[in-house]
């Protein structure tokens, strides 16, 4: 089971310029920001959304290390499943199930959407820090 969140920047041209100036450091900064965001989403999902009965589903939640696929693409995976993947998918998609304690379906999608505006802020902050480090070293 996966949820895809696209990130858009208001100052896309400035972000592109920063990536050009920083090179690999920008990609690493983005990976750090996405990993941090994924952990925040997973924490929110586990604390507030994922159905809880025996804890099997909740304990199957994971955040993988980000994958740098190119100088323009970083992929961050998080989800639920493993041995419980079929169960996780049914619980996530079936809106008719009743979950006690305010738990609900869409237990990964909802926190991902909820946190998506913060992802650009996290990336921007990491890029800003990378620029400061590069400036101190005379690289930009």
SSE blueprint:
Elements: H1 12-22, H2 24-48, H3 56-59, E1 62-63, E2 67-70, E3 73-75, E4 78-79, H4 85-93, H5 109-136
Antiparallel strand pairs: 1-4, 2-3
Largest sheet: 2 strands, antiparallel
Q: How large a portion of the residues is in β-strands, by DSSP E?
A: 5-15%
How confident is the prediction overall: mean pLDDT? 87
What's the total number of strands? Answer: 4
- The general outline is elongated
Separation of the first and last Cα atoms: 41 Å
| Sheet with most strands: strand arrangement | 1-4
Summed up, the helix count is: 5
* Topology pattern, helix = H, strand = E: HHHEEEEHH
- Structure class: mainly alpha
Give a written overview of the molecule.
The chain has one domain (12-136). It is 55% helix and 8% strand. It is elongated. It is built from five helices and four strands, in the order H-H-H-E-E-E-E-H-H.
Features:
two-stranded antiparallel sheet; mainly alpha; two-stranded antiparallel ribbon; 140 residues; single chain; 4 strands; 5 helices
In brief:
By secondary structure, the protein is mostly helical. It has helices spanning 12-22, 24-48, 56-59, 85-93, 109-136, and strands spanning 62-63, 67-70, 73-75, 78-79.
């Amino acid at each position: 089971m996966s949820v895809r969140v696209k990130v858009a920047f208001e100052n896309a041209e400035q972000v592109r310029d920063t990536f050009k100036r920083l090179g690999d450091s920008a990609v690493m900064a983005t990976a750090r920001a996405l990993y941090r965001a994924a952990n925040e989403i997973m924490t929110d999902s586990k604390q507030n959304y994922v159905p809880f009965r025996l804890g099997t589903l909740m304990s199957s939640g994971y955040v993988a290390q980000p994958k740098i696929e190119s100088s323009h693409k970083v992929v961050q995976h998080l989800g639920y499943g493993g041995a419980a993947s079929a169960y996780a998918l049914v619980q996530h998609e079936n809106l008719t199930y009743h979950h006690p304690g305010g738990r609900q379906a869409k237990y990964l999608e909802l926190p991902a959407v909820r946190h998506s505006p913060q992802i650009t802020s996290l990336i921007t902050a990491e890029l800003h820090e990378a620029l400061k480090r590069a400036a101190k070293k005379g690289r930009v």
